[in-house]
TrEMBL record:
Protein name according to UniProt: DUF1028 domain-containing protein
Listed Pfam families: DUF1028 (PF06267)
UniProt-listed InterPro entries: DUF1028 (IPR010430), Ntn_hydrolases_N (IPR029055)
Organism field: Chimaeribacter arupi
Length: 213
């Protein structure tokens, strides 16, 4: 139903999660995160409870792999779930249940993990991963956006992409970026346009005036 990426910028320590899907309003259900703790994406048949439960585990010092194991062990419907987790050190963990729809899978590398179901094929995941690796040195939000676009270019969700979301967490106690497109035939085009606007000089100056903690 979705393809997503969780990643960490080694230079800044920022954490990010981005997702695109054929389902509407996935930004409310799939991506989760908290500053300097971790990020995760719960998809397939999402379990939104993985968000608060997983972040509580990560916040208490549990690593990504153990957090994933604990969440899955407590979920009798885990065969239909897909989950990728990244902790504040960039350690990742991933799960693709046997009952996930269509082509489903995940890939992991240092500081990044990607996953998807209902995909056109493995090339979607590989395209996202290749994009991430080739975009080193760019800002995290830009790299996440490029990864989603690469996934779409490789075939994306077989039902089309109608919703997307992108979040970045830095030093603030709230997301540095929290962008969503809940339903649109050009969801990634609109998400890219929103990202351009929030990175404008005027909006950046506005954000600098806000409390951080």
């Amino acid at each position: 139903m979705t393809f997503s990426i969780v990643a960490r910028d080694e230079a800044t320590g920022e954490l990010g999660v981005a997702v695109a899907a054929g389902q509407p309003a996935i930004g409310a259900l799939v991506p989760h995160g908290f500053s300097q703790i971790g990020v995760l994406a719960s998809q397939g048949l999402p379990n939104p409870l993985y968000g608060p439960q997983g972040l509580a585990q990560l916040g208490s010092g549990v690593n990504a792999a153990c957090t994933l194991e604990r969440l899955l062990n407590a979920d009798k419907a885990r065969a239909g779930r897909q989950l990728i987790i990244l902790d504040r050190f960039g350690r990742t963990a991933a799960w693709t249940g046997a009952d996930c729809d269509g082509y489903a899978g995940h890939l992991r590398a240092d500081q990044v993990a990607v996953a998807g179901s209902f995909l056109a094929g493995h090339g979607v995941l590989q395209g996202m991963m290749n994009s991430w690796l080739k975009s080193q040195g760019k800002p995290l939000a830009k790299r996440l956006m490029l990864a989603l676009l690469a996934g779409e270019h490789a075939g994306g969700d077989v039902r089309g992409i109608h919703a997307a979301a992108l979040r970045v967490y830095g030093e603030r106690r709230y997301p540095d970026l929290d962008l969503r497109v809940d339903w649109c035939e050009t969801a990634l085009v609109n998400l890219k346009a929103a990202l351009k606007q929030v990175q404008s000089a005027s909006h950046t100056a506005f954000l600098r005036r806000l409390p951080v903690r």
